[in-house]
Amino acid sequence: MTGISALPLAQEEGSGRSHQRFRGVSRIVGPQWLRLPTLTIGLLGVQIFWSVEMSYASPYLLSLGLSKSQIAIVFVAGPLSGLIMHPLIGVLADNCTSRFGRRRPYMMVGTIICIVAMLLLGFTRWFAAIFTGWNNTSNDLLTIWLAVFAICFVDFSINAVMAVDRALLVDTLPSSSQPQGNAWAARMMAVGAVIGFFAGNVDLTTMFPLFGRTQLQALSVIASCLLLGSHLVMAVLIKERILLPNTDAAGKSRRKSLTQELKDIWSNMLTLPRVIRQICFIQFFAWLGWFPVLSYTTLYIGDLYKRSSPVPLTAEAQITLDAEATRLGTRALFWSSVVWLISNVVLPAFVTESASSEGSERELFECSSRGTWWSRLKRLVKVPQWMKMDMATLWTLSHLVFAGCMFATFLTSSVTGATFMIAVTGFPWAVAQWTPFSLLGTSILMEISDDDNTAIRLSNTRTHQRTAGSSDLDANADVDETKLFLSDDVSDSDDESELEPEGKEVLGDPNDEDEHYRMLNGGCENGTAREVPSGGGGLSEKAGIILGIHIIFIVIPQFLITGFSSLIFAIFDPKKVDMLQNHHGPIHAPIMNATDVKLLVANGTEPIAVVTRAVLLKWLEARQDTPEWAGDGGSATAYEGSDSLVYIFRFGGVAAVVAALLSWKLARELRHR
After folding, report:
1. Strand, coil or helix: 588
2. pLDDT over 60 (residue 657)
3. Residue 39: which residues within 8 A CB-CB, separation 6 or more?
4. Cα–Cα distance between 261 and 245 in angstroms, integer?
5. Looking at the predicted structure, is the pLDDT value of residue 506 above 60?
6. How far apart are CA 506 and CA 9, in angstroms?
7. Mind giving me the DSSP string for 272-303?
8. Is residue 46 part of a domain?
9. pLDDT at 619
């Protein structure tokens, strides 16, 4: 699971431009102050989905009988889905000529698939029982396969929905307003994480008994409803332009194949500008550390809790222990998401604004009737200049904080200490969701295509001046401006007279800043002209491909760390006794006599093996899990815990140190240019 999204690939046309034509105008229905929240609310539902999978997928698979090594293999679906779905959905959606728009059909179909997959994950045993009946080996095996299938489909479908949500944001906002759009996207994802992890920390089975008998069942229903509701809001209130068939200058159909897109990615990967290449390598090492934390935090906290708890003697006690361990892991993720949300609100005030971001922020609010409260808020929370830092330096600091959290596994072995450690990771995660994308977007806009090492401006080195002839241009454009977002009853499929040629539509036209600005603000009454920052020439035309390369540098380390995790689990995790036979719950060992013991599964009906009591006790002692009942009589539950996860976390800490060194080098280089 990636838990993060880049933009779909653009159709890079080289020196020419495609002759795509659109009918109608894009607009967002509703008041001015609700347009950015409306544009990004879908990511709230997406993040709630991620939260459910992050907190409950690992414990659920473990309860079904899979080992941690096998779970690591299942989680390959996350990075694989990100690697496949982003370029695939990008190409398909870019060329969609549906009367509902390019993005909305894929958004709604993906949402429906997400809901089906999530409900299947929550009710796997119930669906398996339709074909196999209850309480038998066939039901156990089919439940495992359906759970794995559901997780894979959740990963693939949610990545498709996320890609479309991000594409809608890019289609609607100009490059100068992308920081504000990304900031709102980050806020929505943070709020979604808080909601998702908080819900997982509450006993939903007593609050909503109709939603299911287990926590995962109730969460799957709630997450599905929120995902559907948030995307219905987007589908109804966001109106897209209709893409007409794509033709070249001669009128022939022209569409790039996925193979050609992959060739473009490879050729551009070899010629990336220096700054962009550095950002990609920093992301590579950073995600070697992030993926295990996103995937295994619940298991890590749960293992600590189980090792400090008495060994349960009954199946009911084991179920209660597992549920509490999962709830504690979810609680740690909840506190991390709270820190993430607070950081998203606070951190921008501590960052030195670039010229583009400062200007776009001023433009974003000066035409709004609500600009007054924004100005007052900024005056109230004004941060001294000496406390501010540039984005690259903040990124460096976040890597060091994350590395410190991972190395803290040497110092803590309690649930409280581990919860605090995971909560602190909310700060670097907030930076990871925002800073690299802002640096990358700024670099794309400011670099030139022949890579002359133009630096990203990290402070305000330019003033916005009014050009002499701009007022006439704005006056002529005001007639068309009033059409955009001002009337809620304007049709999104106007007549053919409004056909409009367009070039790079997956990322918007870099030269169409004014139109996109008006789309967001609904026109500006004072007619003030604004300088449009110059783009990066040929490099801005390759923005989609560069963002595709960036997502590859995020996904590849997830494959590598998954393989490494599987190896670590195989080496350090204790071997289970007939692991895949333990589907109903913990293994019980009713004592037959002083020397022999017959191992039974939780329902006490299917014999697995006959072993000696001495061998079982010696095995438990070797794992330091010897129960108190080692005397006479009783029944035993063999808990399968280990410290394997801390080695993976510490490896991630080392990778974060490397990322910090690279980002510090990048920050120093940018400051000296």
Report:
1. strand
2. yes
3. 28, 168, 169, 172, 173, 181, 184, 234, 238
4. 20
5. no
6. 7
7. --HHHHHHHHHHHHHHHHHHHHHHHHHHHHHH
8. yes
9. 44
Pure H helices in 201-244: 204-207, 215-237
Q: Is residue 284 scored above 90 in pLDDT?
A: yes
Q: What is the residue whose two structure tokens read 């760390």?
A: 561
Instruction: For residue 358, give its domain range.
Output: 20-251+260-366+374-459+537-573+643-671
- Rounded to 5 degrees, φ, ψ at 502 are -150, 150
Residues 673, 563: Cα–Cα separation, whole Å: 40
Residue 590 lies in a domain: no
Task: Find the radius of gyration of the CA atoms of the chain.
Answer: 27
3-state secondary structure of 74: helix
Distance between CA 100 and CA 576 in Å, rounded?
A: 54
- Reading the block at residue 256, the tokens are 């790039």
Residues contacting 266, CB < 8 A, separation 6+: none
Per the structure, the count of domains in the chain is: 1
Tokens of 366: 């000066």
590 CA to centre of own chain = 46
Q: What is the DSSP letter of 511?
A: T
- Helix or strand or coil: residue 242? strand
Q: Is residue 116 part of a domain?
A: yes
d(CA 72, CA 66) in angstroms, rounded, equals: 10
Structure tokens at 228: 């559907």
**118 and 223 in contact (C-beta within 8 Å)?**
yes
What lies within 8 Å, CB to CB, of 102 at 6+ separation is 93, 94, 95, 96, 171, 240, 243, 505
Beta-ladder partners of 253 = 247
Q: How confident is the model at residue 406 (pLDDT cuts 50, 70, 90)?
A: very high
Instruction: Name 591's bridge partners.
Output: 597
Whether 566 has a pLDDT exceeding 60, the answer reads yes
Q: Which residue has the higher pLDDT, 521 or 305?
A: 305
Q: Residue 493: CB partners within 8 Å, gap ≥ 6?
A: 23, 24, 99, 242
4 is a domain residue: no
* Most confident listed range (93-97, 505-509, 573-577, 665-669): 665-669
Lowest average pLDDT, out of 158-162, 182-186, 562-566, goes to: 182-186
Whole-Å CA distances, 439 to 210, 273, 280, 317, 468: 47, 13, 11, 51, 32
Cα separation, 546 vs 441, in Å, equals 10
CATH number at residue 318: 1.20.1250.20
Token couple for 49: 């989905």
Residue 22, beta-bridge partner list: 243, 500
Q: Would you say how long the chain is, in residues?
A: 673
Considering only CA atoms, which of 164, 40, 33 is closest in space to residue 108? Answer: 164
Sequence-distant (6+) residues with CB within 8 A of 401 are: 424, 425, 427, 428
How far apart CA 625 and CA 211 sit, in angstroms, is: 37
Cite the DSSP H helix spans in 75-177: 77-94, 104-122, 124-132, 137-172
- Measured CA to CA, the distance from residue 576 to residue 596 in angstroms comes to 19
SS3 annotation, 465-497: CCCCCHHHHHHHHHHHHCCCCCCCCCCCCCCHH
**Highest mean pLDDT, choosing among 110-124, 155-169, 202-216:** 110-124
Which two structure tokens, joined as six digits, stand for 526? 């004072």
For residues 567 and 588, what is the distance between their CA atoms, to the nearest angstrom? 29
Q: Which of 4-8, 79-83, 374-378, 504-508 has the lowest mean pLDDT?
A: 504-508
Give this prediction's pTM. 0.69
Q: What residue type is 611 in one-letter code?
A: V
Q: Any idea which residue has 């007279």 for tokens? A: 497
**d(C-alpha 397, C-alpha 64), whole Å:** 40
Rounded Cα distance, 119 and 224, in Å: 8
Count CB neighbours of 143 within 10 A.
Answer: 20
